[in-house]
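Incident review: delayed structure delivery

Summary: a single-chain prediction request sat in the queue longer than the usual turnaround. Root cause was a stuck worker, restarted by the on-call engineer. No data loss occurred. The affected request and its eventual output are reproduced below so the record is complete for anyone auditing the incident later.

Affected input:
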Amino acid sequence: MAAKPVYKVIFLNQGQVYEIFACAIYQSEMYGFIEVEEFVFGERSQVVVDPSEEKLKNEFAGVKRSYIPMHSIIRIDEVEKEGTGKISDAKGGDKVAQFPYGNFMPRPGSDN
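Output delivered after worker restart:
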């Protein structure tokens, strides 16, 4: 039986870059969103605790499914195994910016 795929999702959220791991990712029925389910975090039995991963675990504690706007996604990779999730500040030197799609994407029901 093939192992369940693991995906690394990197996205922008409120000026920070989130890197999370999940087993289920698909396009949402809500226009412009990606659904992320089955979050994967590091083993809880580890002696060394990573503060950035703990912050991420606390933020997603009790979350069954997350809807991430497509314009916030930086990258999605299918990986061999999960890594350490983290939250980091988006630095101006990284040249990472959200695409202001609201002005350019046609809205449902419009003639554009």
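Verification: Residues 5 and 34 are 17 Å apart (CA to CA).
Action items: add queue-age alerting; document worker restart procedure.
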